[in-house]
Design goal:
Rossmann fold, 2 domains, globular
Length: 268
Amino acid sequence: MRGILFDLDGVFYVGERAIPGAAETLDWVRQQQIPHCFLTNTSSKPRDALVAKLARLGLAADADHILTPPVAASSWIAQNLNGSVVLFVPDDTEAEFARLTLADRQTQEPVAAVVVGDLGDAWDFTTLNQAFRLLMRQPSPRLIALGMTRYWRAPDGLRLDVAPFVHALQYASGIEPVVLGKPCGDFYRSALEMIVCKAEQSVMVGDDIRGDIAAAQAVGLQGLLVHTGKFQTSDLAAGITPDGQLASIAEFPEWWGRITGADRIGHR
């Protein structure tokens, strides 16, 4: 075991509250010089905003160690499509797409792609119908999904994430989405390239039994489930078996030492 992929929301923090012991675990990982990055489906904030939030919570990180669906999507679109793109993402997240040609949601021209992220409370019938109408234009654009997370745990309880809205648009338009985020295998492989580790040498630590654990295992990583964030006891009856379970991220250093052997911790 050499490398670690960490989810953020639900693993290191919930809302504006850091998980107890999260900062100490992150400091320990750095001290041990273990290759790692944060693999998150957050599409409501750019990486700079995530770095700032982590700093407020006492969690040190930098943008180069964070992989998000907007970053992956911007790169994929630049390499694979020609033409303008319409974004259904929060205003702040638009910064991650600065190198692309962007069109207004009310455009009457054909577009190359419709990008759907987590708009939260900004979703309403009019907004969803705007995305649908754009998808029905000819030539048919690509439907880009910034991850396919079903829901997440906000401070006030569970909230819908991207997947339900993407599924609605897919059903109505008949267009298969291009998923750039978890649980897409290429998203995991991109993260492994960032830390220069093979799948069989790495572990994914997350709170989502499907998007984190099953998806990581499908690529060849171990999946370590933490009982914080969106975790519910019923997840353990989903037919998915994690490679390990922790009450919280605070227990991770002990788990790593047990798996790797204390004399090997931090050595590549």
